Amino acid sequence: MSHKDVKEVKDVAKKEVAPATHEVKGELTYDDKVIQKIIGISLEKVSGLLAVDGGFFSNLKDKIVNSDNVTHGVNVEVGKEQVAVDLNVVVEYQKNVPALYEEIKKVVVEEVSKMTDLEVVEVNVNVVDIKTKEQHEADSVSLQDRVTDVAESTGEFASEQFEKAKSGISGGFSAVQEKVGDGVDAVKDAASNEKARVR
Name one Pfam family in it (predicted). Predict the structure, then answer.
C-alpha cells in the first residue's frame, strides 16, 4: 500500500465516524391545563391549605357530583419561558396565612420548574375563606355522597325486609308441609278404617 492509499483509507474512516452535526428543529410548549394540574397536585401536600376554590359554578358542581379536578381555582398564564399563577384558596382556621403563602409560592415554583424548566414569575394568592377542618369536611359532602348513603341505607333496609319475608315464607312453607303431612296421615287413617270396616 502506498502512502497515498493509507491516507485515503484514514480519510474515509474519519468521514464514517464523524458525528452528524445538523440540529433537529422543534418547539416544546405546554397547555395551560398541564401547568394547572402540576400546581393543583403539588398544592395537595401543603399543610393548612384546605382547598383551591374554583368559584361559584365549580363549587356548585362539586356540591352535586364528586370531582377530582385539581385545576379548579388555579389560573395560569403560560408563555414560552415564564408562568404567572393566580390562586383562590380556602385556608385552615388558626394557620399563619403569610407563612402559608410563602409555602405555596415555594411549592409552585419548585414543581413547575422541576417538571417544565419554565420560570414562575408571579404567584398571586387570594384567600376566599377560612374554615376549620371539620367545617371543610362537612361542606365537602356532595349530593352524590348523600344519594349514595341513602341508597346504601335503602339497600340494607330492603335486604332486611327480604330476609324477614323469606324467613316468614320458609316458616309458612314448613307449616303448610306439616299440615299437608297431617292431612295425608288423616286420609291414610280414614282409608285404613274404611278398609277395615268394609271387610
Answer: Asp23
Please report, for the chain, the start and end positions of each structural domain, with discontinuous segments joined by +.
Answer: 21-140, 142-199
- β-strands 119-131, 82-92 pairing: parallel
Say if CB 101 and CB 125 are below 8 A apart.
yes
The residue whose grid cell reads 323469606 is 166
* H or E, element range at 57: helix 56-64
Which strand (E) or helix (H) includes residue 123?
A: strand 119-131
Residue that has been written with the C-alpha cell 484514514 in this structure: 10
- CATH architecture assignment, domain 21-140: 2-Layer Sandwich (3.30)
Compute φ and ψ for 175, nearest 5 degrees: -65, -40
All residues at 6 or more sequence positions from 71 whose CB lies less than 8 Å from its CB, including other chains? 33, 36, 37, 40
Q: Which residue has the cell 356532595?
A: 142
DSSP for 39-85 reads: HHHHHTT-TTEEEE---HHHHHHHHHS----TTTTEEEEE-SSEEEE
Between CA 53 and CA 180 the distance in angstroms is 71
- Alpha-carbon torsion, ordered 18, 21, 22, 23, to 10 deg: 130
- What is the SS3 assignment for 9? helix
Residue 178's H or E segment, with its range, is: helix 143-198
Measured in residues, the chain has a length of 199
Convert the pLDDT of each residue in 146-192 to its tens digit: 566 666 667 677 777 777 777 777 777 777 777 777 777 777 777 77
